[in-house]
Amino acid sequence: MIRIVKMVFKPEMVDEFLANFKEDKAKIRNFDGVEHLELLQDKNHPNIYFTYSKWKSPNHLEKYRNSDLFKGIWAVTKPMFSEKAQAWSVDSIEKLL
């Protein structure tokens, strides 16, 4: 399963977010069920970022979202947003085509 999260940051908070992500990314990548984690930046809007992650199953993602690790990261990150984050859980259909 793939999870894409769009985050729009207050411009003055971007550097702090990036520093926090640099500290936390290894912890997230090592969480049970995480197969891939990548941070992407919008080409035209430098304060818009996306996380692109792959999970073994929806249950693994839910365990992460209910974990102390996620709750701690989200509590620090959420106040940095200039608008509400958006998230999509998707499946690759490439193998079906």
TrEMBL record:
GO terms for molecular function: monooxygenase activity. Coiled coil: none annotated. Keywords: Monooxygenase, Oxidoreductase. Pfam families: ABM (PF03992). Residues 1-90 form the ABM domain. The keyword Oxidoreductase applies. This is Antibiotic biosynthesis monooxygenase. It comes from Vicingus serpentipes.
